[in-house]
Design a protein that fits this description.
single chain, 5 strands, 5-stranded mixed β-sheet, DUF1491 family protein, hypothetical protein tt1805, about 120 residues, DUF1491, alpha+beta
């Protein structure tokens, strides 16, 4: 199954969060077709999490290849640590997307890859 374009996926994801009354914004627009998507969750208590695209090697089977799955890259760290990591990622890949969520409960509704 082909993977959904990044711009469509992000648009649907932001709409879903909005429908659930979870504040989220698109901080950076990347490549419309295939840009990597990173999600920052600010827990509003001085900590944040960062979710990154899961490597292909973590996809369970061929059916998963069309899905977007994520892995926790940083958890319960200072927001500045997340920003530093995003800066490094941007130096490596300038076509990436950044979605930021503000949620005290840390909700993100991402499909996480099994490690």
């Amino acid at each position: 199954m082909p993977r959904l374009r990044s711009d469509f996926w992000v648009s649907a994801y932001l709409r879903r969060l909005n429908d659930l009354a979870i504040p989220a914004v698109l901080r950076r627009r990347g490549s419309a077709e295939a840009g990597a998507i990173f999600v920052k969750v600010d827990r509003l208590d001085g900590t944040a999490d960062l979710y990154a695209p899961a490597p292909q090697s973590l996809m369970a089977d061929a059916e998963d290849l069309g899905e977007r799955r994520f892995i926790p890259r940083l958890t319960a760290v200072m927001p500045l640590d997340v920003e530093e990591r995003l800066t490094r990622e941007l130096r490596f890949d300038s076509d990436l997307w950044i979605v930021e969520i503000d949620d005290r409960e840390g909700r993100h509704f991402l499909d996480l890859a099994a490690e």
